[in-house]
Amino acid sequence: MVEQVRVRFAPSPTGYLHIGGARTALFNWFFARQNNGQMILRIEDTDVERLKEDSIDQILDSLKWLGIDWDEGPEKGGDFGPYSQSQRQDFYTAAAKKLLHSGKAYYCFCTAEELEAERENQRREGIPFHYSGKCRDLSADEVRERLAQGLKPVIRLKLPRTGNLVVEDIIRGGVSFKFEQFDDFIIVKSNGLPAYNFACVVDDHAMQISHVIRAEEHLSNTPKQQFLYEALGYEVPKFAHLSMILAPDRSKLSKRHGATSVSEFKEMGCLPDAIVNYLTLLGWSPTEGQSEILTPEQTVQSFALDKVSKTAAVYDTQKLIWLNGQYITQYDLKKLTSQAIPFLVQAGILSNLEAEQNHDHLVTVIQTVRERVRTLLELTEACRYFYQDITDYDEKGIKKYFSKPEIDVILTKGKECLAKVEVFNVENTEKAYRILMEELNITGGQIIHPTRLALTGRTVSPGLFDVMAVLGKEKCLERLEHAIKYIKTCKTEET
């Protein structure tokens, strides 16, 4: 019988969706889609102290924006819910009772002060802290008596004192752990809520998860979880631990290295397709000869967990921004325009109504500027002079182009020749300027660069004649006239 692939992404709603979490979700999604399996989204919200109110919505919105859909979970439902751990207490209570009754777990009544005293003693002896297990062999009568006193114990799993446990990992092979490394760890806290490792195992079993694909940082939890599976009589799923994502200096990735959440990349003006492509390349490589620019559908066809790198992936914002620029250049124009409109509105360049009423023109503007930008923020700025009057000029451009002798005369001639162009398009404006260059016996740079500065306020733009065609005849003549007056005023002030 062919195994039904069921994977899960289980974020904790304590903040925005981190790029590491997004990559984990993406790799789970690739594996599920390649194997005609199911992707489950589960919210691990039992850490009440760290929960953030809007975090769940932020995570769901980020996943949707990236195009990562799920088959079961919040907003979808399914046969194995609820899909929030805070609503699954009955599952944990039943599993804990099973372990207690079988003698594989026990109540621990040690207070925080007692544990701190143990820790201090071991610290003085120079040994790592391990819980002594003083409650491990309490008699049934002693347990009943303490419970009757109203004491609130934790529940600990009873681990072997010696021996090894081997975790079979699809990416890393067999990884051996010694039981001496671990305490009898807590599975249920004194408030009755499950600890992470316990809830994770109970839920993965109940939801019939076949493969646990997660970050390398969870590898140290895996022997505990595997022992829990075995203690509960559950079938152990297959594990695959994805390599860490490190900063360029190979330190742990943090805010000081720039944007680290999906929402931050969105605000920077990155396209979801570019982020997905970039995350795909963090720890996984396309087949030889295959382009680095991949659609999710292309990745699904060739994705394999045993081809995921064991070594850490290095986070490189420059690579992402370069990749984003490639996507902006090649993106469907209508999709790109819809992605750009919120940025243009936020920048005060256009209103939503203006964007809607002049949609075709906006598409043309974006088509004109997109090859020179890398993000939607850059695209927004590149669109600005098409919609807003020029109030000042680039300072270096003024010195380099507007201070030339007779430049006002040259621009006046340019304005006059453009005024005679009847069909104001790229071909005809360029033809008019080429004829003028011959008549004035000047180079292209002598008129093109100052004209660009006059029309855009900048020294760099798309092709001048493309800009002219998009701005239109009336606006070009107005801006040339404004620049000519500005130059004359400057000359007067100098004298």
Describe this structure in words.
The protein has 495 residues and is mainly alpha-helical. Strand 8, helix 7 and strand 9 form a beta-alpha-beta unit. The longest helix has 22 residues. It is elongated, with a radius of gyration of 32 Å. The termini are far apart.
At a glance:
With 495 residues, the chain is mainly alpha-helical. The protein has helices spanning 19-34, 55-66, 89-101, 112-124, 140-148, 196-206, 222-232, 262-268, 272-280, 296-302, 317-330, 333-346, 352-357, 359-369, 376-387, 395-402, 407-419, 426-440, 444-456, 464-471, 473-494, and strands at 6-9, 38-41, 105-108, 154-157, 164-169, 173-178, 186-188, 211-215, 238-242, 245-246, 313-314.
Question: Top keywords for this entry?
Answer:
single chain, 495 residues, mainly alpha, 3-stranded antiparallel β-sheet, 21 helices
Topology:
Layout lengths: L5 E4 L9 H16 L3 E4 L13 H12 L22 H13 L3 E4 L3 H13 L15 H9 L5 E4 L6 E6 L3 E6 L7 E3 L7 H11 L4 E5 L6 H11 L5 E5 L2 E2 L15 H7 L3 H9 L15 H7 L10 E2 L2 H14 L2 H14 L5 H6 L1 H11 L6 H12 L7 H8 L4 H13 L6 H15 L3 H13 L7 H8 L1 H22 L1
Parallel strand pairs: 1-2, 8-9, 10-11
Antiparallel strand pairs: 3-4, 4-7, 5-6
